[in-house]
């Protein structure tokens, strides 16, 4: 039986866990230019590595690309089961906010009072694997011992 290349192993587990994250800027300000998003991806990739996670995909919309809302980013992260999604999110948002505001003074003018780049809320959705209906059906069909 072949092993799926997306399956990872830990010391006591085998896993394939992905989460789709969406972060929105504080007050939904449209602040991102391409240079901000490029650096944001680099920062978030490094944070993921610190958590032994992998930033599989990153995308944000920059202002001036025909889009009105340059105020959010999407991430697809492959992470190990020992990582709490909330801790990963706190680090991703905290580190990226601090570094982006340090490196790009033009962002500071939008957030001089709030002292943070991201809204306090976020979206997190589990992705990958079989649809829930199939997993539920599989579990229902397992035989209980008599």
**SSE class:** alpha+beta
Total helical segments: 4
Beta content comes to 15-25%
What characteristic shape results from the CA principal axes? elongated
Helix content: 25-40%
The value of Rg in angstroms is: 19 Å
Mean residue pLDDT: 87
Main pleated sheet:
4 strands, antiparallel
Are there runs of 5+ residues with pLDDT below 50, and where? none
The spatial strand order of the largest sheet comes to 4-5-3-6
Give the N-terminus to C-terminus distance in angstroms: 30 Å
**How many beta strands in the DSSP annotation?**
6
Strand/helix succession: EEEHEEHHEH
Tags for this model:
146 residues; two-stranded antiparallel sheet; alpha+beta; single chain; 4 helices; elongated; four-stranded antiparallel sheet
């Amino acid at each position: 039986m072949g092993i799926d290349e997306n399956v990872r192993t830990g010391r006591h587990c085998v896993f394939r866990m992905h989460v789709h994250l969406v972060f929105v800027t504080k007050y939904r300000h449209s602040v991102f230019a391409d240079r901000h998003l490029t650096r944001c991806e680099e920062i978030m990739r490094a944070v993921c590595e610190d958590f032994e996670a992998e930033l599989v995909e990153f995308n944000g919309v920059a202002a001036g690309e025909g889009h009105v809302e340059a105020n959010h980013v999407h991430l697809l992260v492959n992470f190990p089961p020992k990582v709490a999604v909330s801790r990963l999110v706190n680090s991703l948002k905290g580190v990226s906010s601090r570094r982006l505001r340090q490196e790009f003074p033009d962002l500071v003018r939008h957030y001089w009072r709030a002292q943070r780049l991201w809204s306090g809320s976020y979206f997190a959705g589990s992705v990958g694997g079989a649809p829930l209906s199939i997993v539920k059906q599989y579990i229902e069909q397992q035989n209980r011992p008599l």
